Amino acid sequence: MSVRLYVDAALQRDAEIDLPAAAARHVQVRRLQPADRLRLFDGRGGEWAATVLHMGRSQVRVRVDTFDPVERELGLRVTVALGMPANERMDLLVEKATELGVAAIVPLLCDRSVLRLAGDRALRKRVHWQGIAAAAAEQCGRTRVPEVAAVQTLDAFLAQLPEHGLRLLLSPGDGAAALHAVAAGAKALLTLSGPEGGLSSAEENAALARGFVRARLGERVLRAETAPLAVLAWAGLKES
Question: Residues 61-87: pLDDT tens digits?
Fold first, then answer.
């Protein structure tokens, strides 16, 4: 398998660049040598063929060659907003959602959130999660890296919703229609789900007042990190 790496900088043909530290270490571990070929992507779509020019102790210099406009994104754009699950479960959610094709992830603070982030800790977590998304995109073949938004309260999120797309409140309760019935013809989805304890009644009512519709994912109650992944899996199966 050829080496494929993410570079967080706009790439252009014939540019000579030093790979970022993590990418350079990967090239060294794979024991590439000058004149060896690899593939790069910058998260903006498409991939670039590249050639190793120089291998130093910690520096790897490459030349960017030809562009391949390949796309491997879901046909249905899915944005996931969720009350952050605690411990490593948010890490898992970011990784697996990226593999399944999520367009963006919005971490939320809700009434029943166990994980409560603010200030520098929230900023560090966002950087950490964005790194997980980039690594997952690198591994799974995606040419775009989903954005992990800043941690925000549910109220703040509801106050500035995007205008496009079907808004789904993932809910196992009464009155929720099956996902496939609600979202069959959607061009874009925005899903909202709660943390481990779910959304409070007040939070659900606030979401419904902003145009969300209830959708259920079957007869079982899914974990906070599982429900959004189920929607992404469904979206992927639709176009397979």
Answer: 999 999 999 999 999 999 999 999 988
Where exactly does CATH 2.40.240.20 map onto the chain?
Answer: 4-68
Res 235: pLDDT: 92
Rounded to an integer, what distance in angstroms lies between the CA atom of residue 191 and that of residue 214? 10
Residues 6+ apart with CB under 8 A from 164: 187, 188
Sign of torsion over alpha carbons 110, 114, 115, 117: positive
Nearest CA among 149, 66, 163 for reference residue 102: 149
**Which tokens is 113 given?**
């959130």
Interval 123-132: pLDDT, tens? 999 999 999 9
Q: Which CATH class is domain 77-238?
A: alpha beta
C-alpha to C-alpha distance for 208 and 57, rounded to whole angstroms: 57
Residue with tokens 């603070």: 109
For tokens 């797309």, name the residue. Answer: 165
Name the CA dihedral angle for 29, 88, 137, 129, rounded to a multiple of 10 degrees.
-100
The domain defined by 4-68 folds into Ribosomal Protein L25; Chain P (2.40.240)
Quote the DSSP letter at residue 58: S
State the maximum Cα–Cα separation within the chain, in Å, rounded to a whole number: 62
Where in the sequence of the chain do the CATH 3.40.1280.10 domains occur? Answer: 77-238
Rounded distance between C-alpha atoms, residue 40 and residue 48, angstroms: 5
